[in-house]
Amino acid sequence: MNKFWNFTEGDDGSRTLFLCGSIADESWFDDDVTPKAFRADLFAGNGDVVVWINSPGGDCVAAAQIYNMLMDYPGNVTVKIDGIAASAASVIAMAGTKVLMSPTALMMIHNPLTVAIGDTAEMQKAIDMLSEVKESIINAYEIKTGLSRAKLSHLMDAETWMNANKAIELGFADDLLFQSTEGSAVAENSFTFSRRAVTNSLLSKVRGHRNTTKPEITGTPITDLDKRLELIKP
């Protein structure tokens, strides 16, 4: 068993969980040992827990079980994202009683992925499975953010990256980890990055150039060019 988590306990009884790197090197789908080990570590105490997350994601089954354990934990769970909470790691973050993000941190949500081999029937089964997995992930996002399922689905379709302020604005996070004198008021200047949106924007620009006539490209309208030709005629 390769533990990707680490619990520490302070002298004051405070408990801290560090989730770093990939969420499980192997799937928890058919694993009875690793989930039990994680639950035993989590419920070894009953005080409030701070969860530090810096993870690119990983196994969605592991993320789902960790999310459920944190939601079931009797104490308060404060999630602190200091690097990245992407993919499956973003699901775990939704279990926080409060979710705080570093001003330099990122969160990413997208559609679940899998690998399938077989005929068309097997491919359809994989598609149906991924659809159900997506709905289960949306459940967690919806509870935390209050956004509509349609909005969340669109954000996942686009593979959306959010900085801390945008995550706060959309409800995925509650506040900044390190506050400035202005607090989180700068959220209005935040950004969200969608790979699909950027691609579509670039394609639109390319198409625009292809449909532009030569006089417009050079910045000389046809009418001006005609007038100049009239002036230099013998």
Q: Your description of this structure?
A:
The chain is 44% helix and 19% strand. It has 234 residues and is an alpha/beta fold. The chain has a single domain (5-190), classed as 2-enoyl-CoA Hydratase, Chain A, domain 1. Strands 1, 2, 3, 4, 5, 6, 7, 8 and 9 form a nine-stranded mixed sheet that branches.
Classify the secondary structure makeup into a structural class.
Answer: alpha/beta
The proportion of residues forming helix, as a percent range, comes to 40-55%
Q: What gyration radius follows from the Cα positions, in whole Å? A: 25 Å
Number of strands: 9
CATH class call:
Alpha Beta
Shape: globular
Give the count of helical stretches.
9
Would you list the SSEs in sequence order as H and E? EEHEHEHEEHHEHEEHHH
Short characterization:
The protein has 234 residues and is of the alpha/beta class.
